[in-house]
Structures are given as structure tokens and as C-alpha cells.
């Protein structure tokens, strides 16, 4: 079972001073469901050498690892192993046999069969927490070490503990959720409405929250996700429902906050003005199960793309060297295209054929200097992410035709010399990371006048501002905005 504390216990062993003094090197690898020998060996080598490797064939990788481990009393932790194929383990074990006597491999797994395949010692099985331990943990999280417990909350807390089912993750998460809550009605609310979700059903979520939560399954386990980007993707797929006069971004923020308060999301970190978070692997499993249930088949492991007509989302992780117009035309239903950080030098003009595209991510492509004018045909485009495109010097002149654009992310586009004409006509725009003042009237700072922007904006080339245009009519920016 997940959430019992297997990884936490392994981490305590791994970081114990006695272990540190006894083993060298110490390597920690998160395996998950992909027990791929080449990937695992590459990650072990990278961990030992503390640097990234380029692409290598399996044989030289095996040789390199054996050279590094030969005669060493190493400790290798393989966390969250699912592989039940004995042959795969035997091949990896053969490579690892070069260590000194006493070298050890520690594995965590939810599957008893994995323990019997990989283990030479009797597995240590973690059981569910006793109700007493579960109660102590929940109280510690909810009240800390010093505060006196409100005795009126004790019977409600005991009921909550019973519903935790002895799962460590549930006790920890609920304890954190109850922290600073001191009213009986607040504890009763947790007991009556939040707990069923923490017992792995999660089916009491409203439909819009369920869709948004399950969509997180498209990100691999342990991915550090960015809040604003996720909200943009929710919008792209139509998961967010209008609420009165609220902008969809605000609706998405409410949904995200609700998922966080229900402890579906964790490990929040704010970098600059962006919020990052992760999902516990158990919670990710639940998201995956919900996501799979909404598809036509829950057992799809590999898709060979032959018919592109209904594909709605695609991303690449390697450099794409060539395109053809016919290739791009096949993805006629595409809504999401992620081409971030792949070394892209030029976006093909056939991008204009993707008329249903709503989200285009080109961030981190350092060599892109300009974008094709055909990009401006994308009338449904809501998010254009160009942050970190250092060499980008200009946007297409007809960018103002992107009438649905809500997010134009230009942070880190240091080479941008001016804005395209009439950017102020993009009245749906909510996020604009950078505004480079141009010399012409149509790209002056006055273009910001009619925009209802949020977040922060960096305004460059202020020496080009023509005061006459500033004096005609004042510019109003949202109170939230921060001019850098």
C-alpha cells in the first residue's frame, strides 16, 4: 500500500550518520514503474559523478558503472520499484556485482512479489499505523508540541483517526489540514466531507475539481509543476466553469487553492513570482486512476500515432530537426503544443494550420530569433509562452490579431527590442511579462491603457516614451501589478 512511510523510512536510513560513514558512494534512484536498465544505469552514474551524461549506448554505460563501483562498499537505494520481471532485475544485478563485500542494495516497493524477486534478505514489511500512533501523529501535526489540546475536539479527532485507516500519509495530511483550526464545526467538516477523499475514493470532488485534479496525471511523477501554467492548461481544455464576473484565471486560482486545501497538492515553493508544487506519488496514482477512467481504455501503455485527427495535446523532449507542412497539417485538432527547451531554432510557418491550438509553449529555446507571421492565424490561441527565449528580437507585426490571447509570457526575452503594433487591442490579455517600448506611436507605452493586466511586468526602453501620448489619457493598471 502507498502512503505507509516506506520512502520516509528509507530516507532516514540513507541519511543516518552511521550509514554515511560505512558506505561510499551512496546513491538514491527513484525507479517508479519504468524499470529500464539503460535509464537506471545512466542515473546511477550521474548520481555518483554528480554531473549529467550525454546519450550513450548500454554497453559503455555498463562498463562506466562497473569502473565506478569496482571494489567499493556502496549503498544503492531503489525507491518505489514495480518491476515483476525477474530477467530485468537479473541483468541489472549482474552489472552491480562488482562492489566490495558488504555493498548493499535497498529497495522499497508496494508489491510482495518484487520483494521476493529482488531480495536476498527477509523483507521488512511496514504495517498500517495503530490507532494510537495515528492519533499521536495527527495531534502532533494539528497542535504542535506545546499547545494544550482542546478536549472538545478529542472525540471528533478520534473519529477522524478511525477513518484514516492507519495510513501514514492520511494522518499527516489531515493533521496539517487541521492545524490552526480550533472550532468544533471545522473539525466536523473535515471529518464529514474531506475524509472520504483521503481514503482513496476522491469521488466526492465536484466535477470541475475532479477534471482539474485528474488532468495533473499527464505530468510524470515527481514533476515540479508551476501553478499559473497549470491553470492555463485547465483553461485550454475547457475544465474551468464561469462564475459570475470572475475571470477564468481567478476561477482557476480558486480551484487550485481548493485542491491544495484538500491536500491533493503539496511542497509549495515560490520562486520569483511563480508558485511551484508537487504531488505525492500516492496522490498521483489516484489522479492517474481518475484520468484513466475518463478515457476509452484504462490499459493504454503505448500509442503509435497513425491517425492524428483527434489528437488534442502533444509535447516533445528532444530536438526536432525538421518539419514538413504535411506533418503539421495532420494534427488538425491539436489544442496543446509544448516545444519548450528542445533547442528549436525556427518555428515552421505551417504552425498557422493548427487552427484549434489554444496553448503554445516555446519557452527555453535560446536560438529562436523571430516567429513566423502565420502564427497570427491562430484565433483560438490563449497562451503563448516565450519566456527564456533570450535571442527573440521581435514578435510578428500582426500579433494584435490574436484576439483570444490571455497570456503572453515574455519574461527573460532580453533581446526583445520593441512590441508589435497595437498590442493594446488584445483586450483579453491578462498576463504580459515584458513590454518593450517602441519608437512608433502604435508601440508606445500608451498601448497598455486598455489592458486589464495581472501579475508583474518589466517595461524596457523607457527612454523612448513620448510624453505627449502619456498626457492625453492616464493609464490604469490593476492594483496587483508590479512594474519592474
UniProtKB/TrEMBL annotation:
Domain NB-ARC, by residue range, is 1-145
Q: Which domain of life is it from?
A: Eukaryota
Q: Where is the Disease resistance protein winged helix domain?
A: 218-287
Return one GO MF term: ADP binding
Among the GO biological process terms of this entry, one is: defense response
This protein's record includes keyword ATP-binding: yes
The Disease resistance R13L4/SHOC-2-like LRR domain covers 326-452
Entry's InterPro entries?
A: Apaf_helical, LRR_dom_sf, LRR_R13L4/SHOC2-like, NB-ARC, P-loop_NTPase, WH-like_DNA-bd_sf, WHD_DRP
**Keywords recorded for this protein, A-Z:** ATP-binding, Leucine-rich repeat, Nucleotide-binding, Plant defense, Repeat
Pfam families registered for this protein in UniProt: LRR_14, NB-ARC, WHD_DRP
Q: Which family, according to the similarity comment?
A: Belongs to the disease resistance NB-LRR family.
Any idea what this protein is called?
Disease resistance protein RGA3
State the organism named in the record: Solanum pinnatisectum (tansyleaf nightshade)
